[in-house]
Amino acid sequence: MRPLEKINKVGPPLPIQANAAFGTISKQYFGKTADEEPIYLYTLTNKHGMQASIMTYGGIMLTLKVPDRHGVLEDVLIGYGTLEDFLRTGNKPYFGSAIGRYANRIANGQFSLDGVTYRLSVNEPPNTLHGGKRGFNKRVWASEEVYHEDAVGVALYYTSKDGEEGFPGNLGVKLTYTLTDNNELIINYSAMTDKKTVVNLSQHNYYNLAGAGNGNILDHVLTIHADRFTPIMPDLIPTGHIQSVAGTPLDFRIPTTIGARIHAQDPQMRYARGGYDFNYVLNPSGAAMDKAASVYEPNSGRMMEVYTTQPALQFYSGNGLDGSEIGKGGIAYNRYDGFCLETQHYPDSPNHPNFPSTELLPGQIYKQTSVYKFSARASK
């Protein structure tokens, strides 16, 4: 695993751009943290003009421009538009962020390994959410360009020190965003540790396939390839059981609009605070990578398909957005203005031996891949 490279604290460099066989990568100075660490913005463009921009701060994807059925490009990510907004607000919704060390929640901010209890930083009392008070979404990552014959990307590197946010072990992490000429956004994760630890990495884009700021996502048609989910308690921590989606508002095995049952008077939906915020147990196919979900937006024709090596998918319908977050173009984001499909391991797995293990040992390599493939239907 490549170590975190030293970045000299110098003034803003000039933007640079390099060309692959078809796609391009541009890099520009984007600002700095309060500690004077420089932040860079990489923009990946494929041969069709599809474009993704990623900050080295938090591994945050700032924009994702995708063609509709007429070939018109539009940004399909809601979120802030400037580095200053991310730093000023603390990015409480985790717009576009890389998530680690542990995606989702850990109950009571603690877990045990080999009889040793580790107490984590608590940022959603009494629980730890998405890595703690200063998770990977608030760290500056080292970076380098990645070129392939039919794709361009950026590799990000971060070394999480032993004890950071309470987690054991020095953890070296590599996160690679790749944009292919097949309009695929590929996210590769890898990590190594020098001490037994737990790892669950994910990514937190909020999508609106009609275009950022173009209304809510209730008419998006969603399919999730999962027969089961992990039910939650009122604090959103899993009960430890695994339950069938059959007969519940959580059943998206057949294509269904997100809004069709979002107001159902169901205890689980009430616990999720008026919408979806659930971990789905994906149906294993035996293949190296399973199809997890697909989403279709009828007006634009945009389709997004999700494939992953991860065992689960968190579907969040933006229930916590309340108009207080002012995003790109000065737009206030309200409830259901964006959705997340976060590939991951189960929440709170370290405290549930019956869940797939998230333990990582020295000498092992954590590796996961997720693919978000975009296309457009010719007609409704």
Provide structural commentary.
The protein starts with 15 loop residues before the first strand and ends with a strand. It has a nine-stranded antiparallel sheet, with no helix packed on it. A six-stranded antiparallel sheet has the order 1-2-3-4-5-6, with no helix packed on it. The protein contains two helices and 30 strands. It is mainly β. It is globular and about 60 Å long.
What key phrases describe this protein's structure?
30 strands, 380 residues, disordered N terminus, mainly beta, six-stranded antiparallel sheet, globular, 2 helices
**Which strand order spans the largest sheet, edge to edge or round the barrel?**
12-13-14-15-30-24-23-18-21
Low-confidence stretches: 1-16
- Radius of gyration computed on alpha carbons: 20 Å
| Helical content class | under 10%
Shape: globular
